[in-house]
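Narrative summary of target 7.
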Amino acid sequence: MKKHIILVSLILLKFVIQYQLISPIYELHRDEFLHLDQANHLAWGYLSVPPLTSWLSYLIKILGGSVFWIKFFPALFGALTILVVWKTIEELKGNLFALIFGSCCVTFSVLFRLNTLYQPNSFDVLSWTVIYYFIIKYLNSGHLKWLYCIAVAFALGFLNKYNIAFLILGLIPAIIAVPERSVLSNRHFYYSILIAFLMILPNLIWQYKNNFPVIFHFEELAKTQLVNVNRWSFIRSQLLFFFGTFPVIGFGLYALFSYPAFRKYRLFFLSFFITIGVFLFLKAKDYYAIGIYPIYFAFGSVYISTLLQHKTGRILRPLLIALPLVFFIPVYMLTFPNRSPRYIADHPEKYRKIGMLTWEDGKDHQLPQDFADMLGWRELAQKVDRIYGKIPNPQCTLVLCDNYGQAGAINYYSKFGIRAVTFNADYINWFDFSNEFRNLIRIKNSWENQLEMNKTAPYFEQSMRSDSITNSYAREFGTVIFTFINAKININQRVKNEVEQEQRQHMLPVK
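Modeled conformation, tokenized:
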């Protein structure tokens, strides 16, 4: 009973803190708008992510689409990760101290940061942790049902984020290298693989029919973002993700190598280093690897509890339990959008020291990229709404944006039910030409202002620069809203041609 009260208290604390981490100054993140818009275009795949996020978005839409529900699901996945770590420690025969200590290490960590945003990453970490837990259950019991549980967990993880493939890349060589490789001769192992394959097959078919956009997406990511990834920064980030408690992971790895009671779990020792090695070789983004770590807090906390059996050790236990919270406090002050943009811009050094001001372009900016991506969206949508409401026959107006953040924010906040589109990301497949467009509201990045006016104005009777984003801290600062009234040409056909051209560039089948 005491254990259950502590576990429930930890999970409730997780939810309470999670909803307090973001200042009301900030809005939704640009990626969240894209994921939410997928609820309006359900499919078995998308250019950006597999389909599971769209199913959650549809559920959020049914629930009313409020910020509460948007933030609820990543918080829920974070809470479930804590629960799985707790259950893992129980499976490893950990005592009450190990349960509390290991769970606190996971709770007061980068998961708070990860779980602030509605993205596939929270469920990704949960998927990794669940698969590792099921492997431990199988190693302890030998029951075949756990092989099928692993298969289902992998399939759901795959339908959420392809990043789960790195888990398999790390596991297979590790399994081959240990005595537990006997599972490879068990027919149920292959039956479970078949089940996983059948579950992900609809997404694979979608990828095939769309010329495997995941490959194009990865190549584009490698050229534009991963090229700026520094391997030393990757390693440094791993330490910062679990600031102050990373040594617990080290104890876990040491125990997997030398502690007799953990001998049967030795594949986890090998898998850890193989998976990290793959991430380093491919110059992956640092947060891709977060899913590896929660399970190792279980090993580490159980091993540490065996070292603290004597009287002095028992005195140290409360101090160790408090350690994650103590180390979390400075992290809370720096890594969450709980300070005003002005404050951050006026105190850049402490943010710069831990690399938070470096964006994907490899350059330093006045705000962390994620924070700047949470500003200016409501302003943009309100200004577009105001312009839209004054246009004659607004239903014949195409709202065309430069990126998915702009389109998604307008679609989320608009009081007119505007369905803005862009040639960027999944929106390339979401153009609706059922109406004949006569007007155009064009949202353009700041550096292309004059070019857009010169290019588009000749095709309309009226052209004007209507407004712009004035929040200097927003990544969208300076983004301009152009209005073009009464087209002299067939807008639908011209835009269709551009859509087809973009689809060909992305190697997508032309619709």
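The chain has three domains: 2-298+309-335, 341-372, 377-505.
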